[in-house]
TrEMBL record, chain B:
Keywords: ATP-binding, Nucleotide-binding, Transport. GO terms for molecular function: ATP binding; ATP hydrolysis activity. The lineage of its organism: Bacteria, Pseudomonadati, Pseudomonadota, Alphaproteobacteria, Hyphomicrobiales. Pfam families: ABC_tran. Residues 1-211 form the ABC transporter domain. SMART domains: AAA. It comes from Allomesorhizobium camelthorni. Belongs to the ABC transporter superfamily. This is ATP-binding cassette domain-containing protein.
Automatic annotation (TrEMBL), chain C:
SUPFAM superfamilies: Periplasmic binding protein-like II (SSF53850). It comes from the Bacteria. It comes from Allomesorhizobium camelthorni. The lineage of its organism: Bacteria, Pseudomonadati, Pseudomonadota, Alphaproteobacteria, Hyphomicrobiales. The keyword Signal applies. Residues 1-20 form the signal peptide. The keyword DNA-binding does not apply. This is ABC transporter substrate-binding protein.
Length: 562, 213, 406
């Protein structure tokens, strides 16, 4: 039996990753052209697409989405690139790395709320500076959050994408020989940054490329961050799209599908432009190389990169702290820097209502993570059996759910679940989450799994142990820390899912995240504080478990520590 | 006991149609067959083939017999081919005693009997009283001896040695060599040793096959 | 052929009892018996904590008294619940739907009624507690935005547009008394007023209030939109907004997304005037520590919009009996009195106090409506809501003009 199971791993994984996307896209694209027999659409027409293009501000919405995707990616990638270039291998680097890594698990919505509470005219920063510096007795009439060009939204995305790209880069870094390449470049007289850009960056970027594409796709189609920080006149495409998907009019289903198709086109266009930018960047690097310029005075650039990195991390942390304060605030008038009184009233009033969403959050996260871990282990065991490591195509499958905009295929998937009666059921929701949890679990577990010294297995076999005994008593215990960390990553991803939960849970299965975003429009900062704080707490608890349990179990086993 | 001799019948291992190792040889109990070759020559693949854990990337042919039984088609765990690598590879999540208990065949019943075997084995390699220790707190030489005790406790039919002394310093190396060969002789095991150290081959004293030259 | 007939007969046999099994509110004991053990998914706007807490209480009482489990499905827009029913109808799910009860009125009611998505025939006037409902003095209970209710939804609360200000910062005498006044006030106080972004319900209601005040002939609004004269009818509204919007908070480039967000702006001293559809909203916000105790209400002497909000049951609801019991409980004197308490929610009752038994009457008479709540005789005249088609057209026009403007 245990020899059959791993064989099922790769096909199952592909079904989990690609199945929902294929069915979902079909369920989106066909209605976009008028084909949806259940609603009486049996022919093909361009009428819905044409109606879409007559919507007020539709081009503006699409442009904002496109720009947000490109600017977010360019800035966050730029900061990460320059930071690694300037600081990799230093003490500061490892310290920043420890500061930034946990931020990856903070759900996007919580980070966005934190930022909003920080930078709004009545936010924490204005309070800290008023009235002694600014003279403001009342909040200034400044358009910061929800600004029409989407700058706050882009900022909110950047502070979250920086940790993501940094960790992806860190994972790829061991595969390029940074210290020796740097020494070589330095011996040729190149500055730290220039040497990195010429010698290390091109192979490093090749390793990170799919992750960067995922950032482009995500930032062009994000819903929760855009709903919290994004412009409203008009809103970015994905936000309007979700509005149309929920419109009571029957005919809007076709129209919303056409919108989802437009979203797909916008994300694809952003990716194409990004690829063109890649070419341009590579050409510029080539020209620079030919010029032989050394750029030895790059201290300012290194410092700027460090400052940007620290600012991004501190922004998220300060935002989270502000959320926590609001959740315990009594009356807190502008421009007081702290509330007049602290009270647990909001927590106590909210607590009874937390039980249901909290249990759905935990059940769905635990189930989807467990399935993802099991599937990943089967795939990796299969890899060992066949001796073939999953190649580029497998990697593409893994990234598929991150590359196709969620709004573009989840709507069709929801329609599918409605027709099969599976909508708003726990298994359907777990399955939808699994599609997004799986890539992260696989990416985080595959490296430690592959790095495992397989001679331990040869030894166990030589001792007469069966494969299943070897797996259960040697390999899994030795990889327990890596498995738990991968589980914590998967758990965090599931907790942070907004759109899949809203669409597949159909409002009847609510999680802490959907509750928090639903409250966003209400503007009750205290209650938002409670939900967003919890949103951040859950993944943190997951990581604490992942670190503490092995530390406790293996407290007398020195080699099991990191 | 004489039926535990190891017979390699026309064993040939190739990578991309290039033959790395080809050997036909009978290794008597207590005898050592030494395979010499530079690193990267593929000499270790012979051990992997005998042990049953050859990477699928290699193609191999030939038969392996332990005594009268052909073991070529058996899964690794049924071949009882005890192996020692250049690293001791003690399981880091088990205590020293745990490593040894793990190796004792299930046929030995009863906690007391199994623990007694562990103590006896540790005593046999000069490490009495270390059963409860964390293996990572042992010295390199101690670890190597625990690894040896572990493999012997599993009642193997043969001993496969993959450069097991190369990471030890000179003095420890000769001690360890003597210990391993002595144990193999008293346990009446056929031994295949893969190494690039001429001194190993000399100490082993058996036939030497050179590959990759 | 025979087989086909047999299959058809079997199918009929399977479906008929289901149809015959629809609960009948006139046989209330049977409804109560059917309802026991049912779970009612109540789809209601979930953006206000005090309302959520009230529904929490109602759910606990329903469970205790009738064995009905009430689950509040929190919406940010009622249209989402309507969309769910639409999707289910499209998917052929004519039974066992996911929505059992919807908090609804106006546009959404009209849309569901037109598409025959509501549990019918009319059931609301057959509920046991209907006898207390004030149909005589509250005409909006039987006519929802000019659309006849016909018992397809059960009244829950009353709404009237009122304005709030902080008396510690602004003087009542300086505040506007009409839409025209408001524009003049905004010219003197730029950036200190705003309204929730249409199609938010409160924001759209502000547009209707202005239109009702400025339109040449108010009776036009009680009929469906006439496309030929639409532009001419709404011209005064949009020339008004052209002037007002640049004077708004953030120069009219961003809007609060709903009433609670606008309330936060008053709390943060970002605006001076806000408005709500619930006359005691300010008092409950003070009681909840969300607004300073110095906030007071005012209204336009010329009249403001008034309407009723309801609960309705979709045609395919899975727990119709349970939904009926819940709807009836929501108009019980006890539930209504609790709802009107500003400490709890502060939503005005749909009942006629005079029809109640003495003990129930006392529940209302002892309520402290709060310092910031106007007395019924201070609320001013009520303006009728325009036909729902106006809301839709004005929202579209607003989006075209201001929703995408840069």
């Amino acid at each position: 039996m245990c020899s059959m199971l791993p064989r099922l791993g790769p096909p199952l994984a592909i079904a989990v990753l690609a199945g929902p996307i294929l069915f979902g896209l079909a369920g989106t694209i066909l209605p976009a052209f008028g084909y949806l027999p259940a609603l009486g659409g049996t022919g093909f027409t361009l009428a819905h697409a044409e109606k879409l293009l007559t919507q007020p501000g539709i081009m503006m919405s699409a442009l904002i989405s496109l720009a947000a995707g490109l600017v977010t990616t360019a800035v966050s990638l730029g900061v990460v690139m320059l930071f690694i270039a300037g600081w990799a291998g230093t003490h500061i680097f490892s310290r920043i790395q420890h500061l930034v890594s946990p931020l990856l698990s903070v759900p996007h919505a919580a980070a966005a709320f934190g930022l909003a509470f920080l930078i709004a005219p009545s936010g924490m920063i204005a309070r800290m500076l008023s009235p002694w510096l600014t003279g403001w007795e009342r909040p200034p009439d400044l358009l910061i959050v929800n600004d029409p060009t989407g700058l706050s939204m882009i900022a909110g995305l950047i502070v979250k994408e920086i940790p993501f790209l940094l960790l992806i880069a860190l994972a790829a870094l061991p595969q390029v020989d940074l210290p020796r390449t740097r020494a070589l470049a330095a011996s040729l007289g190149y500055g730290r940054v220039a040497g990195f850009l010429h010698g290390v960056w091109p192979p490093l970027y090749r390793q990170m490329r799919l992750a960067v594409f995922a950032v482009v796709a995500f930032a062009t189609s994000v819903v929760d961050v855009a709903a919290i920080l994004g412009p409203t006149t008009p809103a970015p495409l994905a936000v309007r799209l979700v509005g149309w998907m929920n419109d009571p009019e029957l005919s809007m289903r076709f129209f919303a599908s056409a919108g989802a198709l437009l979203q797909l086109c916008v994300s694809a266009a952003a990716l194409l432009i990004w690829i063109a930018l890649e070419r341009l960047g590579a050409a510029m690097l080539r020209r620079l190389r030919r010029s032989g310029l050394r750029f030895r005075r790059d201290a300012w650039l290194r410092r700027a990169a460090l400052a940007a990195m620290v600012t991004a991390a501190m922004t998220v942390l300060a935002g989270l702290a502000t959320l926590a304060i609001w959740s315990f605030a009594g009356l807190w008038q502008f421009p007081d820097a702290l509330p007049e009184t602290f009270t647990a009233k909001t927590w106590m009033k909210t607590a009874p209502r937390l039980a249901a969403p909290l249990s759905v959050t935990l059940i769905v996260a635990a189930a989807s993570t467990t399935l993802a871990i099991a599937l990943t282990l089967l795939c990796l065991m299969r890899e060992n059996e066949t001796g073939r490591v999953a190649g580029r195509r497998a990697l593409l499958f893994l990234y598929l759910p991150l590359l196709v905009p969620q709004a573009a295929f989840l709507f069709g998937l929801q329609l599918l679940f409605v027709f099969t009666g599976g909508v708003a059921s726990l298994p359907a929701l777990v399955l939808a989450h699994l599609t997004f949890v799986m890539p992260y679990v696989f990416l985080s577990l595959s490296d430690p799994w592959r790095a495992y010294d397989r001679r331990y297995e040869a030894i166990a076999a030589g001792l007469g142990k069966s494969r299943i005994a070897t797996l259960l008593r040697v390999r899994l215990p030795m990889l327990s820390r890596a498995i738990l960390v991968a589980a914590a990553v998967g758990f965090a991803v599931s907790v942070g899912q907004y759109l899949p939960t809203v669409l597949i849970g159909a409002g009847r299965l609510e999680t802490i995240t959907t509750e928090a975003v639903a409250l966003a429009s209400g503007g009750n900062r205290r209650v938002i504080g409670v939900y967003a704080f919890l949103q951040m707490l859950l993944p943190a608890a997951g990581f604490a478990v992942a670190t503490l349990v092995p530390a406790l179990v293996f407290r007398n086993r020195r080699a099991m520590r990191v | 006991m004489a039926d535990k001799q190891l017979f390699l019948d026309g064993v040939s291992i190739a990578l991309n149609a290039r033959v790395l190792v080809a050997v036909t040889h009978r290794v008597e109990v207590g005898e050592v067959l030494t395979v010499m070759g530079p690193s990267g020559s593929g000499k270790s693949t012979l051990l992997a083939y005998i042990g049953g854990f050859l990477d699928p990337a290699f193609s191999a042919s030939g038969k392996v017999f332990s005594g009268k039984e052909e073991i070529t088609a058996l899964p690794a765990e049924e071949r009882h081919a005890g192996i020692l690598f250049q690293d001791p590879l003690l399981f880091p999540h088990m205590s020293v005693g745990g490593n040894l208990l793990f190796a004792i065949p299930p046929a030995v019943k009863g906690k007391a009997a199994r623990l007694a075997l562990v103590e006896e084995a540790l005593d046999g390699v000069g490490l009495a009283g270390t059963a409860s220790r964390d293996p990572d707190t042992l010295s390199g030489g101690q670890k190597a001896r625990v690894a040896l005790a572990r493999v012997l406790l599993s009642a193997p039919r043969m001993l496969l040695l993959d450069e097991p002394f190369s990471k030890l310093d000179a003095e420890l190396r000769s001690q360890m060599r003597e210990l391993v060969f002595a144990k193999a002789r008293t346990s009446r095991l056929p031994v295949v040793l893969v190494t690039h150290d001429e001194a190993d081959a000399e100490a082993a004293g058996g036939r030497v096959i050179r590959v990759g030259q | 052929m025979k087989k086909l007939l047999l299959a058809a007969a079997a199918f009929a046999a399977m479906t008929l009892p289901a149809l015959a099994g629809e609960p009948d509110p006139e046989k209330w004991q049977e409804v109560l018996a059917d309802a026991r053990g049912e779970t009612v998914y109540f789809n209601a706007w979930g953006g206000a904590e005090n309302i959520n807490a009230y529904l929490e209480w109602a759910g606990a009482e329903l469970e205790k008294r009738y064995g009905v489990k009430l689950v509040h499905v929190k919406l940010d827009d009622t249209a989402n619940a309507v969309a769910k029913v639409v999707a289910e109808k499209a998917a052929g799910r004519n039974e066992g739907g996911t929505v059992d009860l919807i908090w609804i009125n106006g546009e959404n009611f009209s849309s569901m009624k037109r598409q025959q998505l509501l549990f019918s025939p009319g059931w609301a006037e057959k509920l046991p507690n209907w006898r207390f409902v004030d149909v005589e003095d509250k005409p909006t209970i039987q006519t929802d935005f000019t659309v006849p209710v016909e018992g397809l939804e059960s009244p829950w609360g009353m709404a009237k547009l009122v304005f709030f200000h902080d008396s510690a910062r602004t003087d009542l005498a300086s505040l506007p008394k009409s839409a025209k006044d408001l524009l003049a006030w905004a010219q003197q106080n730029p950036g200190r007023f705003t309204y929730p972004q249409p199609p938010d319900f409160i924001g759209s209601s502000f547009l209707k209030q202005v239109l009702s005040e400025l339109v040449a002939d108010r009776s036009v609004l009680l009929k469906p939109v006439d496309e030929a004269s639409f532009d001419k009818t709404v011209a005064p509204l949009f020339s008004y907004l052209d002037e007002l919007n640049p004077l708004l908070w953030r120069g009219g480039k961003a809007f609060p997304q709903n009433y609670p967000a606008m309330k936060q702006l008053l709390a943060d001293n970002e605006v001076d005037i806000i408005f709500a559809f619930n006359p005691s909203e300010a008092s409950s916000a003070i009681a909840n520590g969300e607004l300073p105790a110095t906030v007071r209400s005012f209204t336009f002497p010329g009249g403001t919009l008034a309407n009723t909000h309801f609960v309705a049951i979709p045609y395919n609801a899975a727990a119709k009996a349970g939904a009926l019991v819940a709807a009836d409980f929501l108009i019980s004197p006890e539930a209504q009195a609790r709802k009107q308490d500003p400490q709890i929610w502060g939503d005005p009752t749909v009942l006629a106090i005079s029809k109640l038994h003495a003990a129930d009457r006392a529940r209302f008479e002892t309520l402290d409506l709060g310092v910031a709540t106007l007395k019924p005789d201070e609320l001013g005249p009520a303006l009728d809501e325009p036909h729902p088609s106006w809301m839709d057209r004005i929202e579209t026009e607003w989006k075209r003009r201001y929703g995408a403007a840069h």
